[in-house]
């Protein structure tokens, strides 16, 4: 685990008041009318969990287009950071829990700030470090949908993410892990790890949920990034 390095990269100096900017995303109905606006606070000058990543807009769009399926479902977002997909899920009627590394409290604080900004009161924000089967992870109710946007960005963490996902899917074998990732290297693969942890994945083409665009939800973030989506489920015994 390289967390100390990540904290340095995050440039989170607790002695300096963070400077925020507010970003707004607008999700549309099929007829192009504006239907849901979500605002998120980003911390200027910092990295990782303190600003929205392109993958988050794509996953949020998937949540939005499948919103009827997630109503009243238990949804957990891993590595949520600014939490755009989780916030959209909560706005669409899911019972959402947001999480980020237990070792980055400022990130968790920003997730709480994001809930407040969107009038979401009572959304739990918990510290869950990937790969750790902690009391906080064990005490979650069975999770129907796990969300993870851009959580596969450090190859050394891939297995830790899947350990957490596999633990949750063992507790609810009909659960699903919805994840978007950015292709940063053609050498990176999780296939062997999926087999090891008894998981399987299905690709979700972006065009089926109208996310194969440079502009999405009123944002230019997706741009030219090569983003993909997959759904990971527990492998059933044959
Ligand atoms: C690339 S950012 C993506 C943030 C957000 N999901 C998005 O797409 O906008 C990766 C996120 O994973 C979190 N993270 C990094 N290492 C982690 C770990 N070991 N356990 C849990 N979360 C972690 C970071 O704090 C950050 O919020």
Automatic annotation (TrEMBL):
Top-rank taxon, per record? Eukaryota
Q: What Gene Ontology cellular component terms go with this record?
A: cytoplasm; nucleus
Ordered alphabetically, the record's keywords are: Methyltransferase, S-adenosyl-L-methionine, Transferase
Q: Per its UniProt record, what CDD domains does this chain match?
A: AdoMet_MTases
Pfam families with a match to the protein in the record: Methyltransf_16
Q: Which SUPFAM superfamilies match?
A: S-adenosyl-L-methionine-dependent methyltransferases
Q: Which InterPro entries match?
A: Methyltransf_16, SAM-dependent_MTases_sf
One GO MF term? methyltransferase activity
Q: Give the UniProt family note.
A: Belongs to the methyltransferase superfamily. METTL23 family.
The name this protein goes by in its record: Methyltransferase-like protein 23
Q: Which organism is it from?
A: Pangasianodon hypophthalmus
